Amino acid sequence: xxxxxNILYWNIYHAKFSYTMSVMYASLRSVCLLLISFLFxxxxxxxxxxxxxxxxxxxxxxxxxxxxxPIEGLxxxxxxxxxxxxNEVIKHKYSDSDLIIYSNSDGIIRDYNNRFEFHRIGRTxxxxxxxxxxxxDITKHERIRINFTDFFDVSFSLAYxxxxxxxxxxxxxxxxxxxKAVYSIQCKKIIPDxxxxxxxxxxxxxxxxxxxxxxxxxxxxxxxxxxxxxxxxIDEAKSIYITNDIIxxxxxxxxxxxxxxxxxxxxxxxxxxxxxxxxxxxxETQKTGTSIWLLGYPLTSTMGNEIKATSGIISSRSxxxxxxxxxxxxxxxxxxxxxxxxxxxxxxxxxIVCAHHTQTENVSYAIKTSYxxxxxxxxxxxxxxxPTSINVENKTLPELIEQSxxxxxxxxxxxx
Length: 416
Known about the structure:
By secondary structure, the protein is of the alpha+beta class. It contains eight helices and 22 strands.
């Protein structure tokens, strides 16, 4: 329930280009529509005599619902989300979703995603709710009153605020004091039958098991068996593959080293299958105004699989909010460029692409290569075996791109 991960700044830990096979949601929607149609058929019986209505109630639901808490069922949820900065609304959004509430094997009434825990007070219509953030060992307590005339007509409202620790985790170093995320949800039950709820749960579990996520980024050789990229490119990946126009094959990679704080990762390729890079990786901080160019694989689903080049300058020797780890660069980038190399006009690597500022044109960020060298040397990997830069012959930019693209790779990650 986090609708604001791209507010203020494209967070470098969420800049990965990804897409999800969303079969689960479509299946749940189909089940819901079928069940809603079923309920409409039931409601039409109310137009007949009370006696017939009682008979339908008895044979259809009374035996099933005897031991079910009134709050159990499948709900349509309307959510109003607000992001505030110093109590001023900077983002306001409405959305619809589904919520399943059921009693689990321990007898605890929870929602399917284990975010809410419900405790009825006696036989009243009042419930205490625990809103859970297990990752931070945080529980927020609220009390609500549900509205119901019978087991089938149930609704309730709930308002809560996201904990500061969750906000800090989402925005990372770009968190701003005074930032708040507030939610107000309106819940209306549409399925009152435990059996039908259990069937929906079964469908969701089956679909969740086959749900596949794929996302991509860029990386570049530092030796003949090591590739540098961003941590956020490979974060949560179960399988990682690399390829480019030169090697053509797709090669499996593994994580050799990583630094989440600096957003760096080193991938290992077995067997030394890669060509030794001919460029140097400079440790010195570059001057403002230095001309740069970069290579990467942005938005391959729409822009194609051919490697892309852009150019610009180092606009500043510090990044977002003065971050000394980063350069600000003017070269345009898109999702998928993350982890790609930034070169100077001598063909040396001087940075690693990591993020793009979404609220202005041609403002991007790159990690200084000194932090990459430090990460490598902590693993006893020493680079810069080339005695001089690769551009001693004053090659043109197209010639440099052609010479360097062999060492730049399309990185493909999956959760399987």
